[in-house]
Design brief:
By secondary structure, the protein is an all-alpha fold. The protein has one domain. Helix content is 95%, strand content 0%. Helix 2 packs antiparallel against helix 3. The longest helix is centred in the middle third of the chain and has 136 residues. About 3% of the residues have low confidence.
Length: 170
C-alpha cells in the first residue's frame, strides 16, 4: 500500500486533519512539495467535511424547525376549527333553549288567557243567574202586590156592596 492510498483512506474527520498537518510538517522538513500539497488538501478536505456536517446539521435543524412550525400551524388551525365547532354547538344549544323558553312562555300565556276567559264566562253566568233571580224575585213581588191589590179591590167591592145593600134597607 502506498502513502497515497493510505492517505486517501484517512482523509476525513479529526484524524484526517491531524494526518494532513503531519504530512505538511514532514514535507517542510524533507522539502517534498507533493507531500506538503497532499497534507494541505487533506486538511482542506477534513475542514470541508466538517463544514458539510455542520451545514447538514443546520439544515436538519432548519427542517425540524420548519416541521415544528408546520405542526404548530396545523395545531392552531385545528384549535380554531374546534373552537368554531364548539361555538356553533353552543349557539345551537342557545337557540334550542330560547325555543323551549318561548314555547313555555306561549303555553303559560295561553293558560292565563284561558283562565281569564273561564273567569269572565263564570262571572257572566253568575251575573245572568243573579239577574234571573232578581227578575224572579221582582215577578214574585209584583204577583204578591197584584194579589194584595186584588184582595183590597174585593174587600172594597164587598164594602161597597155592603154599603149599597145597607142603603137599600133604609
Amino acid at each position: 500500500m502506498t502513502d497515497r492510498e493510505s492517505s486517501e483512506r484517512i482523509a476525513g474527520g479529526l484524524a484526517g486533519k491531524i494526518a494532513g498537518k503531519a504530512k505538511e510538517a514532514a514535507a517542510s522538513l524533507t522539502g517534498n512539495e507533493d507531500l506538503a500539497r497532499e497534507g494541505r488538501l487533506q486538511q482542506a478536505q477534513a475542514d470541508a467535511e466538517a463544514q458539510a456536517k455542520r451545514a447538514a446539521a443546520q439544515a436538519k435543524q432548519g427542517d425540524a424547525e420548519a416541521s415544528l412550525q408546520a405542526d404548530e400551524a396545523e395545531t392552531e388551525r385545528e384549535r380554531r376549527r374546534l373552537q368554531n365547532e364548539v361555538a356553533a354547538q353552543e349557539r345551537e344549544e342557545q337557540i334550542e333553549a330560547d325555543r323551549r323558553e318561548a314555547d313555555a312562555s306561549a303555553k303559560a300565556q295561553a293558560q292565563r288567557e284561558q283562565a281569564a276567559a273561564q273567569s269572565e264566562r263564570e262571572t257572566r253566568e253568575s251575573g245572568a243567574s243573579t239577574a234571573e233571580q232578581r227578575a224572579e224575585q221582582e215577578r214574585l213581588a209584583a204577583a204578591e202586590r197584584a194579589i194584595r191589590l186584588e184582595q183590597r179591590a174585593r174587600r172594597a167591592e164587598s164594602r161597597a156592596q155592603d154599603i149599597e145593600s145597607g142603603g137599600d134597607r133604609e
